[in-house]
Design goal:
The protein is α+β, with helices and mostly antiparallel strands and about 240 residues long. It has 9 helices and 7 strands. The strands form 3 sheets. It has a 3-stranded antiparallel beta sheet with strand order 3-4-5. Strands 1-2 form a two-stranded antiparallel sheet. Helix 5 packs antiparallel against helix 6 and helix 6 crosses helix 7.
């Protein structure tokens, strides 16, 4: 038994370096380990590529083309646009109809790799709720209502990309996004959001009323011809005449 295991690994490292040196500098880089196959030593080892850029895009699944926005963003990076579009469309064809975020890693030799993400939560919520746009007033206006089951389904879809350990935590995150979009969840926050929206509507109505009164007052002042007496002006004119 070795008293110091580190010495064993150091010894192995020295032997491996000696073998590499022999094959590269003595045998011309050829491995004669078998008569039937001769491979260059450089083919045995893989050299790590340098990452030069990472680009994030959102592209309709199965519909990437070299046209903008894909071509506009990836063209300057120098990668093969046709190859990227073909690979992306093949990888996402089973998700047709969704918008997919994709993170593209570009290497120094102009090759690339990419990772598909789950569709944005806002996209999934609008799709389930059957709306085109979210509320411009946020939680102050309810534009749609979804069920708990639909909320859970979206949370399960987004789970891989969320900072959540349980489906319940993921549902809370999606619920927050829905609230900000004006989408209520039936039996969960719909009553609360309806009350909040009513209060916001009343406050908005009162603000509009005050604004109208202020505008009317300003218009009244503008239309009235009021003679303003300047104190001291008459005395000054009299002194000048004298």
């Amino acid at each position: 038994m070795l008293k110091n295991p580190l010495n064993f690994f150091e010894t192995c490292d020295i032997i491996l370096n000696a073998i590499i040196y022999f094959y590269i500098n003595v045998s011309g880089g050829e491995c004669g380990l078998a008569h039937t196959t001769k491979r260059k030593w450089k083919d045995v080892f893989f050299v790590a590529k340098e990452v030069v850029k990472r680009i994030k895009l959102q592209i309709p699944a199965g519909k990437a083309t070299p046209a903008p926005p894909v071509g506009t963003v990836l063209g300057p990076a120098g990668i093969n646009l046709g190859e990227f579009c073909t690979k992306f469309n093949d990888a996402s064809k089973d998700k047709m109809g969704d918008i997919l975020p994709v993170e593209i890693t570009i290497f120094d030799d102009r090759t690339f790799d990419f990772v598909l993400k789950t569709p944005p939560a806002a996209f999934l919520l609008k799709k389930v709720a059957g709306i085109q746009k979210a509320s411009k007033k946020g939680a102050n206006e309810i534009v749609a209502t979804i069920t708990k089951d639909q909320l859970r389904q979206i949370a399960e879809t987004k789970m891989p990309d969320l900072n959540a350990y349980t489906i319940e935590d993921a549902m809370k995150i999606i619920e927050g996004t829905a609230r900000n979009m004006g989408i209520a969840v039936k039996g969960l926050n719909d009553a609360e959001m309806a009350e909040h929206a009513a209060e916001a509507a009343e406050a908005e109505k009162e603000a509009a009323k005050r604004e109208a009164e202020l505008e009317a007052l300003e218009e009244e002042v503008k239309n009235d011809n009021v003679d303003v007496e300047v104190i001291g002006k008459e005395n000054t004119e009299n002194k000048e005449e004298e």
